[in-house]
Amino acid sequence: MGLESYVLIAGFLFCVGLYGILTRRNAIGVLVSVELLVNAANINLAAFAHFGRGLDGQVFVLFTTALTVAEVVVGLALVILLFRRRKDILLDLANGLKG
Amino acid sequence: MMERLFFGAVATVLIFSALMAVGTRNLVRAVLWLGLTLATTSMFYIMLHAPFLATLQLILYTGGVLSLMLFGVMLTRRSTEQHGVEVHNESNGQRRALPIVAVAVGLIVTAVGRTDLSTATPAAVSPETREIGQRILGTHLLAFEVLSVLLLAAMVGAIVIARRKDASLEGKDDPRDRAAALPGSRLSSERET
Description:
By secondary structure, chain A is mainly alpha-helical. Chain A is built from three helices and no strands. Chain A has one domain: Helix Hairpins. Chain B folds into two domains: 80 residues, NADH-ubiquinone/plastoquinone oxidoreductase chain 6, subunit NuoJ (Four Helix Bundle (Hemerythrin (Met), subunit A), Up-down Bundle), CATH 1.20.120; 67 residues, no CATH class. Helix content of chain B is 79%, strand content 0%. At the A-B interface, α1, α2 and α3 of A face α1, α2, α3, α5 and α6 of B.
């Protein structure tokens, strides 16, 4: 399969994740969508590493994986904090800084 | 031909599970669909001659991140289903989101169409895992070290963020806060916030 098919699939995955981020009101739902975005980027990195005959793309995927795990951990801590304060995890409730 | 069929099947599963992960109301189901998406991505990695990444994807994402998210859903599960609040803000959210997503799709398709990607041919030999390790500890050593600091910071930060409320509760020792902490006391929680 050519490089375009991988890039197009990853692009579509990215758009699905973008749609999820924009429509979800639930904090964990947004985290799920962010995972989709990162996944799309990872597919692109691996595809370009394979077709570009380099290895740095794969190394980059390792780095983004670690970053994503850190992001999920902090995100879930925030979600749990939000739940403790507001008894729900709808993002509309996280308006404490709103002027 | 066989490869094309396989690619099509995997891509279909990937897209479908991603759509379900974004579209379904039930959060637990959304997380499980995300798990299918991540597992299918590891099939992509295998097709891209990156078996190490595929293994890592299965262990880290479907093993670690997914169970973490399920824990998050279970720990915070209550009011969305009980009080009948929708996960989606159907009318408003979709109307605002669709044009943005349409622009993104258009941009990506245009960019891919204008770039000549068909000349790229895949590498004949798949790289060895040993080389990845050598790259990480050689060329990208600085990034690796920075990443370890970041992971430490994330760990400490997560603990601090998630624990803060407990400490303040113990310090105050106010019966009203106790009542607010009880499940089902919607009114007192409103007052608390």
